[in-house]
Design brief:
Blueprint (H helix, E strand, L loop, with lengths): L3 E5 L3 E7 L2 E9 L3 H14 L5 E8 L5 E5 L9 H10 L5 E8 L6 H20 L1 E14 L1 H13 L3 E7 L3 E8 L3 H12 L4 E13 L2 E3 L4
Antiparallel strand pairs: 1-7, 2-3, 3-6, 4-5, 4-6, 7-9, 7-10, 8-9, 10-11
Length: 218
């Protein structure tokens, strides 16, 4: 299992005019293949009057599910270029739909490839390409007198405190980048003189941008 992968943060769309044809690029992160199919159908319904609603999506831990459609454009000029943009950006768990309103000027095979490539790219850029990084959920159970010192040190070292639960001790829930877990443990051992209980209680992929965890909008 890869500990880091690229995807998009949220729904996004943008449009461009190419030789009088309007191309609208839509992109959305997906959690399963059904979400991709539902999104494609939603865009088709929204643009029933469009000449074409071309799509491609990639899903799975190893990007093993890859689908595309030219939607009546000449074979190889629409769906594959959209899919290739997703693959070139090394994205997974995304769906892209490029809607075309025909402007009366034929673009030819090369022109269509460039146009659908552009439509896919602007849709993905609008959806914001981000990293998904595996984080370990670490529970630190310690005495109340050490909490302030631990909190200050974690904040100074840019660890993300997700929650704090109080009972007869303080339970600090930290989301740690998978590569920093051992460093986190060392910090806590040093501050508490090995008196704290440290447990890995879960793991999850989180969106990270500029070093900060972003709320999942998908």
């Amino acid at each position: 299992m890869k500990n880091i992968y690229k995807t998009i943060h949220s729904f996004g769309n943008n449009e461009v005019i190419i030789s009088k044809s309007k191309f609208i690029g839509y992109a959305k992160p997906i959690k399963n293949e059904n979400e991709a199919l539902e999104f494609i159908e939603k865009i088709r319904e929204k643009h029933k009057d469009a000449a074409h609603n071309v799509y491609a999506y990639v899903f799975g831990e190893n990007s093993n599910i890859q689908r595309y459609s030219d939607d009546k454009e000449p074979s190889g000029t629409a769906g594959i270029p959209v899919l290739e943009v997703i693959k070139k950006e090394e994205l997974r768990n995304v769906v892209v739909v490029v809607t075309r309103y025909f402007g009366g000027i034929k673009l030819g095979g090369g022109g269509l490839i460039r146009a659908y490539t552009k439509g896919a790219k602007i849709g993905l850029d609008a959806a914001q390409i981000v990293d998904k990084i595996l984080h370990k959920e670490v529970k630190i159970r310690t005495q109340y007198s050490l909490y302030g010192k631990i909190e200050n040190e974690l904040m100074k070292k840019d660890f993300h405190i997700d929650n704090v639960v109080y009972d007869d001790a303080v339970n600090i829930i930290v989301l740690s980048h998978f590569e920093r877990v051992e460093s986190l443990k060392s910090i806590i051992v040093e501050i508490t003189s090995s008196s704290a209980e440290i447990d890995i209680i879960g793991e999850e992929y989180f969106t990270v941008l500029d070093g900060s965890i972003l709320k999942d909008l998908s």
